[in-house]
């Protein structure tokens, strides 16, 4: 929790940078933000929010001390933590891939880090978030691997899953705020 609190401060600083630069160059912000594809970002946001739901289902399974599915792969009601976390990982990877695609499109339209203050603020804030998502993906792989290596899935392994989900939910909340500020606040 202390570490997540420090992350709140870190992202608070990024938001302050964004608002400060935005207030000093309103015309640049208006012109540059018009190039953003808010529909693509909204779809990507929905994917990330749904990944938080699947992560929570994984936590519920971990709390039941059920590391893996108890039925067929299509029997979602009997999925364990691993299956839910794999689905969460896939959705998180899709989020990062779509964000990378958006970056490529924006670079082709001249929005780059060295181009202007808007490019710097946009890529720094969303890029640091993407790095946090990537860190969460690594954490999910770690927890999934531990579930496979554990001779007995117990409370220690379940606690690891819960802690990773806290981080993932935090990353999702930060993105929701970031999405609202970057794509809708004009």
From TrEMBL:
Its main location: membrane. Keywords: Cell membrane, Membrane, Transmembrane, Transmembrane helix. It is found in: Cell membrane. The keyword Zinc-finger does not apply. Residues 1-186 form the Heme-copper oxidase subunit III family profile domain. Its EC number is 7.1.1.9. Pfam families: COX3. SUPFAM superfamilies: Cytochrome c oxidase subunit III-like. The chain crosses the membrane at residues 40-62, 82-101, 121-145, 166-185. PROSITE patterns: COX3. InterPro entries: Cyt_c/ubiquinol_Oxase_su3 (IPR024791), Cyt_c_oxidase-like_su3 (IPR000298), Cyt_c_oxidase_su3-like_sf (IPR035973), Cyt_c_oxidase_su3_a-hlx (IPR013833). It comes from the Bacteria. It is a multi-pass membrane protein. Belongs to the cytochrome c oxidase subunit 3 family. This is cytochrome-c oxidase. It comes from Citricoccus muralis.
């Amino acid at each position: 929790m202390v570490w997540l609190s420090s992350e709140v401060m870190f992202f608070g600083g990024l938001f302050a940078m964004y608002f400060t630069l935005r207030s000093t160059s309103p015309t640049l912000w208006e012109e540059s933000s018009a190039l953003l594809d808010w529909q693509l970002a909204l779809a990507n946001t929905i994917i990330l929010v749904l990944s938080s739901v699947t992560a929570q289902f994984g936590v519920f399974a971990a709390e039941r001390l059920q590391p893996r599915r108890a039925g067929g792969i299509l029997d979602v009601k009997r999925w364990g933590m691993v299956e839910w976390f794999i689905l969460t990982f896939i959705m998180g990877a899709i989020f990062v891939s779509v964000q990378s695609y958006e970056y490529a499109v924006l670079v082709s339209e001249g929005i780059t880090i060295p181009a202007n203050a808007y490019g710097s603020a946009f890529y720094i804030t969303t890029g640091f978030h993407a790095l946090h998502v990537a860190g969460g993906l690594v954490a999910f792989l770690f927890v999934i691997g531990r579930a496979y290596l554990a001779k007995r899935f117990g409370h220690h392994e379940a606690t690891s899953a819960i802690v990773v989900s806290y981080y993932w939910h935090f990353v999702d909340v930060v993105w929701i705020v970031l999405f609202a500020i970057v794509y809708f606040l004009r």
